[in-house]
Amino acid sequence: LDRNYNATAAVYQKVVTLEDKLAEKPATGKSRKN
Fold first, then answer.
1. Can you give the pTM of this predicted structure?
2. Which has more pLDDT, 11 or 34?
3. For the chain, what percent of residues have pLDDT higher than 90?
4. What's the DSSP call for residue 28?
5. Which residue in 27, 28, 10 sits closest to 19, CA to CA?
6. What pLDDT was estimated at residue 4?
7. Which branch of life, at top level (predicted)?
């Protein structure tokens, strides 16, 4: 269970990083950024 949580957290972190990179572009993913 703990290992599964760590894997989920790692994937979530990757998604956040990807969205941050997309947010750097103008008008891309801005509406989702909170």
1. 0.49
2. 11
3. 29
4. S
5. 28
6. 86
7. Bacteria
Rounded-to-integer distance, Cα 18 and Cα 34, Å = 14
Does residue 13 register a pLDDT over 70? yes
Q: Token pair of 6, please? A: 């760590």
| Helix ranges restricted to H, the chain | 2-24
Amino acid letter for position 27: A
DSSP conformation class of 25:
S
Does pLDDT of 29 surpass 70?
A: no
Length of the chain in terms of residues written: 34
Q: What letter represents residue 20's amino acid?
A: D
